[in-house]
Amino acid sequence: MDKRTISQIFATILTNANLRGFLDRNIYKGESKKICVPELNCYSCPGAVGSCPIGALQAVIGGIRHKFSFYVIGLMSLFGVVFGRFICGWLCPFVFFQDLLYKIKSKKIKVNSKIDGRLKYLKYIILITFVILMPMLLTNQFSIAKP
Fold first, then answer.
1. Is residue 114 over pLDDT 60?
2. pLDDT band at 35, cuts 50/70/90?
3. Does residue 79 carry a pLDDT above 80?
4. Helix or strand or coil: residue 145?
5. CA–CA dist 70, 27 (Å, integer)
6. Does residue 4 carry a pLDDT above 70?
7. Contact between residue 7 and residue 89 where contact means Cβ atoms under 8 Å apart
8. Average pLDDT value for residue range 106-121
9. Full 3-state SS string of 42-74
10. In terms of C-beta density within 10 A (0-12 exposed, 13-18 middle, 19 or more buried), how is residue 6 classed?
11. At residue 67, does pLDDT exceed 70?
């Protein structure tokens, strides 16, 4: 195993260290859930001991209207500026599982370069739609969105 894979395994175990949550099938709601970890980590995972920055951003956007969370945006910006893509490549559990899935032998599909060029922008459309617009617009009468 290379250093990157070991780092990904360690980070995945560390951010999902609530083993009791897997046994009890309960979401951990301790004090560390108030802290955003510098990687994508699903809030509803029973083992998650920290808060996902994207999920925290959705909760803030879908919360009481006209409040802006400098904590979430500031933390995401700080980690992005200081660490860059290191977090995605070396710490993120989703990238670790993506790397494992890539190792499965399967027939690779060749995509036309013109289509590939257009599909590169799809991730931004998905980000804006599901992380920003939906939590902002789909709220109840108290201006709170469902997680």
1. yes
2. confident
3. yes
4. strand
5. 26
6. yes
7. no
8. 85
9. CCCCCCCCCECHHHHHHHHHCCCCCCCCHHHHH
10. exposed
11. no
- Which tokens go with 31? 């004090």
The dihedrals phi and psi of 118, each to the nearest 5 degrees, come to -75, -35
Token reading at 111: 């995509």
Tell me how far apart the alpha carbons of residues 63 and 81 are, in angstroms, rounded to a whole number: 27
Q: Which amino acid is at 4?
A: R
Please count the residues of the chain.
147
**pLDDT averaged over every residue in the chain:** 79
pLDDT of residue 64: 63
> Which residues are CB-contacts of 60 (< 8 A; sequence separation ≥ 6)?
67, 68, 69, 72
pLDDT on residue 125: 92
Q: What is the mean pLDDT of residues 92-116?
A: 84
Calpha distance 9→71 (Å, rounded): 28
CA distances for 119 relative to 61, 72, 129, angstroms: 27, 28, 15
Cβ pair 95, 89 in contact under 8 A: yes
Q: Which residue, 92, 90, 101, is CA-closest to 7?
A: 90
Which residues, in sequence order, are bridge partners of residue 145?
139
Residue appearing with tokens 């036309």: 112
